[in-house]
Specification:
The protein is built from three helices and 14 strands.
């Protein structure tokens, strides 16, 4: 009965959001501030804490082990996690294309190390939880990713997915209209540090799953031989500003180009060449964020 009550409550909240209210802000100029809680796909009772008056409303912080118990109902502290473990929605935890090729460095069953769980906070008590159970040849970590919340005597999961990336990836939530989306930010550089790339990975909660909707570069550098300045190298730098709109994400991309310094005295080096700016839009369309144009980086790099 509790599950039915919470599902109906979530649908009622969503319906109220669609109805709007008199005097609402212009949807073209400002993102609505109304917050709509997603409908839970998993719910688990947890030991209540605090006074009875606060048990129903208080947002809870769970330990990593507790979040794993919510994600994997059959999880056992002494046995650990199996490669064929099922999540709370009945799907295999590690059966995702993004996790193909990953391996558990500590074998199976895998005992849980709390340091392998990243818990990030969002609004209204939301939590993004990433279990880094797999390692990849390029140094990436990988594992299940969930959007959830704990309050009162219950923990809820709103969507389950997978993520692969550097261990220091940063997670947050963002609002696109009444949509809650997950944002994972990563940064990777080569061994010399000359070529770096910071990326934003966007995930949409859909039918209890976290669906990868788009990946964009927010910062990027690359040094390559110049095509117009013989014997010199051109350095490209990208910076992208994000603005969240009711129907998508506005991207303002800027690429600056400069000739790097050389020790050859007869060559005119270490100077700026040009700066190019361009805006494009990631439009929210069902299960994806559709780009209205090609990224500026691909259209600029290698032409100077």
């Amino acid at each position: 009965m509790n599950e039915r009550f919470w599902a109906l409550a979530g649908l009622a909240t969503a319906a109220m959001g669609l109805l709007g209210c008199p005097g609402a802000v212009n949807q073209d100029t400002q993102v609505p501030v109304r917050y709509v809680t997603p409908v839970a796909v998993c719910r688990m009772k947890i030991p209540a804490v605090g006074s009875p008056e606060r048990q129903r409303a208080a947002v809870r912080d769970l330990d990593p082990e507790q979040w794993v118990e919510v994600l994997i109902p059959a999880y056992d502290d002494e046995r650990g996690i199996d490669p064929t473990s099922l999540d709370c929605t009945g799907n295999y935890v590690f059966a995702n294309e993004s996790l193909r090729g990953g391996a558990s460095a500590r074998g199976w069953p895998r005992l849980l190390d709390p340091d392998d769980v990243t818990v990030s906070s969002g609004p209204q008590g939301m939590r993004i939880v990433w279990l880094r159970a797999l390692k990849f040849d390029n140094g990436d970590d990988g594992g299940p990713l969930i959007l959830g919340r704990a309050y009162g005597d219950a923990a809820e999961v709103y969507a389950v997915g997978s993520f692969r990336g550097p261990a220091d990836a940063q997670f947050s939530t963002a609002r696109v209209g009444n949509e809650t989306i997950i944002l994972a930010e990563t940064k990777e550089c080569d061994d010399e540090g000359d070529q770096c790339r910071r990326r934003s990975h966007f995930y949409l909660p859909r039918r209890g799953r976290l669906v990868g909707a788009a990946v964009i570069d927010t910062e990027r550098t690359q040094i390559i031989p110049s095509t117009t300045e013989r014997g010199l190298f051109a350095e490209y730098k990208l910076v992208t500003d994000l603005t969240y709109k009711p129907d998508g994400i506005l991207l303002l991309e800027q690429v600056s180009v400069r000739i790097t310094k050389t020790e050859v005295p007869t060559l005119d080096s270490e100077r700026e060449l040009r700066t190019v700016e361009f805006s494009r839009f990631l439009r929210l369309e069902r299960d994806t964020l559709f780009s209205t144009n090609e990224p500026l980086w691909e259209r600029v790099v290698g032409r100077d």
